[in-house]
Amino acid sequence: MIIRKINILTLLLILPFALLAQEDDQALVQSDTLSITKGTQVIGVPILFYTPETDFGLGAGVQFIFGNLPNMFNSRLSDMLVTGVYTTKKQFLLDVRPQIHIYDGQFYLEGLFRYKVFPNSFWGIGNQTSDDALESYNMQSTEIHAKLLKRIPPTLNFGFEYVFQHHKMVEYDSAGQLITTEIPGSEGATISSLSAVFTFDDRDNISSASKGNFLQFSAGFSSQVLGASYSYNKYKFDIRKYFLLQDKLTFAANYYLEVTYGRVPFQTMPWLGGNERMRGYFNGRDIAFEYHTIQLEIRWRLKPRFIIAGFCSGGDVGGRLTQLYRYFKYSYGGGVRYQISKKSPIFVRLDFGFGTPGNSGIYFGVNEAF
After folding, report:
1. Would you say residue 11 has pLDDT above 80?
2. For the whole model, what pTM was predicted?
3. Longest Cα separation, the chain
4. Shortest CA distance to 64 belongs to which of 51, 83, 84?
5. CB of 301 closer than 8 Å to CB of 315
6. C-alpha of 183 from chain center
7. In a 3-state reduction of DSSP, which class is residue 64?
8. pLDDT digits (tens, 9 = 90+) for 35-90
9. Is the preceding peptide bond at 98 cis, omega within 30 degrees of 0?
10. How far apart are CA 290 and CA 313, in angstroms?
């Protein structure tokens, strides 16, 4: 069955690559790019993907590139990506993601508006939940994220992030845990949080870095004073290092830690798995208060626009940091990346991930996992 899915996915990927391969010196993608002003371009991108959480998904994206909002510190451009997708599990997602450089890069604004109707799976809280505890639920969510950072030249950024989320439970499993409303968030949740964010970033590019460093730390809280239904604290630590071993060979390493304290709804607890960390596990198979993971990846540029990669990772969720190593999990896999334009380091990525027996996933996305 999995081979059949791989073959179908491969056929689906051929069409968008063929459409995106045509180039022009003045455009990222000739067949899909429209210059609407002297400084603004629009790129239309077909979206085809498969993940364990969604099965097959189909949609479209539009990327606006704002050449009239320059960044004096590096070549990164201001842009906004709008995507809409529908999956074979009857999930609908609409995302709007602006990344804007203000005052020639002195300030950086990153945002997210997301609306989704997302039937999903739940096994409970903790890192040793039983497969037999699987239950289904459906949730409707609206999210708004706004992050404003001030650059401290040349590579430091400091600022604040506000997050608003409203999760409405639509359907429950009549024999499941969520219908009892004993788990925080099982009756729905409103999250209103404010965080301080510190970032160090000297990567050569953010799409598929080959050298440099990235470090980000954030500390924040959600409070009923801000209109939230739950009060808790959350801390995140994300560090990445990239080594250019040879002209075409890159080694990348990433350590990620997320810690929460208080009465935390399950929707915003750390979730193990997914497209970016611990590939090979269903995103949300394990949910708990704390999460850490280490992942290593080797990338070889086989052709000017093709990269093949292999990766491995390990980590877990738990109730306390001392419990994270008790049931340590691992994953491994590999995949390919294709640069859709010589003029811009934007990649599409296809990965196959494998975890402990019974856990695996196929992932198709944009740019590297980290």
Report:
1. no
2. 0.84
3. 59
4. 83
5. no
6. 25
7. strand
8. 555 678 888 878 888 888 888 899 998 888 887 777 777 777 888 999 999 999 99
9. no
10. 17
